[in-house]
Structure formats: structure tokens, C-alpha cells
Structure prediction request, 295 residues.
Amino acid sequence: MEPASQRFSSTAVWPNMNDLELTTRYIDVVGWRTRVLEVGEGRPLVLMHGSGGHLEAYLRNLRALSEHFRVIAYDFPGHGYTSLATEDLELPTYVEHLLALLDTLGIDKASLDGESLGGWVAIKFAARHPERVERIVLNTPGGTMARPEVMRRIRSLSQEAADDPTPERIRRRLEWLMASPSSVTDELVDLRRGVYSRPGFARSMSHILCLQDPEIRRRNLITDDELAAVEAPALVLWTTHDPSGPAQAGKEMASKIRGAEFALIEDAGHWPQWEQTEKFDSLMLEFLGAVPVSA
Prediction:
């Protein structure tokens, strides 16, 4: 019988995961009704999406990672299908929420993988709660730069898409993340459009985007002291086409974390886990101590 993973020639993700024993549920986490996806068994691995995103950012990685780990992906406060935000969301809120999520799930220690805002949260969390982090992967992480042109672009594309979630506006926002526009599938557009069409989501987006305000961003930026406080083994991943900043930014971050490794992924933008799935999964599994997919 043909393997389930090969039954569909479509680029759609969900049909190729019908055989995975995954669950999605809602958990109350310090007052936030939080959407959580879990799949696999073993050591916990938490996947965290970027600003304005949702757990589907990691859909293409669930199969490979869940062969070795208990994978947990969730929607941040104000994001995805978690409770919507009614006030500005700064980094302490995300860090507190992650800590409470681990406590609620009965997880004493986990590895973290954070993309963009997720990486920002992961660093802040690892610096503040080193005893709760086994390993940390920083995937095109935010939090060390404040480039006005990038902040303006993120704010305009994101708020426009939330205010008027047409397929065209959603696609334009997603294409900004990618090295190749062809990486934005119709399925991904539909998934995000469903999120952005939620009643009240446009207001929630305005609170998410407070981090694109120069003054608010400045007080939330990652400090050198926080990078030095990360005790867990760390891997910083950057790409050749990241719109948020050059690879040098990732190298500088890695140089400030004791013993951190750095890896560059070719032909990807801000979502290497989506555009270069096999390469991303291989780097992840090798760093986290599992057998590389390519082995």
C-alpha cells in the first residue's frame, strides 16, 4: 500500500497529515482561551509562530518532528484562534503565557523553536526561566533590530489584511514573508483568511502591532544581557532572503549566546520551515539530538 505521505500530489498540507494522531484543543491559560495542537511522543518541543501568525506556520514540519518529539504548537494571545486582544501585547505577556502553558500541560522542561516573534519570546523566556529550557532554536528571530522601513511595511501589510481580509491582501502579506511568491499556496491563503476574518480580529491586530511602534519596540528589545543569560544550547537559523534583516544580524546574535551555533538556509525568506522544509527539519533534528531526516 502506498504510504499516506505519498497519496496526494497536491501541495495542500492538511490532506497529507490524515494519518497523524494529532489533537487540537482549547486550554485556558492565564485567562486566554488558547488553541493548542499536539502530536507525537517523547521530549517536549514547542513551536512558536511569528507576529500576526498562527500555528499553521509549522504544518509542514509536524510529520518529521513528531517522529522524535512530543510536538506542541499553539496560537499566541491575540493571534490565530486564541482569545483576541483588547489591549497592547508586549513581550512580558507572551513570556508569562508560555510559562503558564507549560505549567498547564505539566511540562517541566522543553525545547523551544521560535520564528520571528516566536524567537523573540523564546529568548526572553530562556533568559528569565533557564531551568525550563532544554534547547532553543531561533528561526529568523525578531527582537534585536528596529528598522523603520521594515516596521512600517509589517504594520501596513498586516493591518490592511486584517481590516479587509480579501484573498489579494492576505496573499500580499504572506508573499512578503517568502523568497518566492509561489510558496504562498491557496491553502495557506485560505487558512490565514479564516483567522483574519474573525469578528474583532482587526482590533486584535492593532494590539499585536504595537511592537512596530518605535517607542514600544525599544523597551521590549532583547538586550545583550538577556542573550548572555541563555544557558540552553542554541541554534540561530537565518536565510538568504529574510526581509527583516541581513544574515549578519543572526551571526551577531549567535556570537552573544554562549556556545550558540549559526546556520544559513538558502532560497528562503522569513519562513524557512515552510519554504525549505526538508533542510529546516534536518537542521532541527540534528541539533535537537534526533536522527536527521536526510540520514
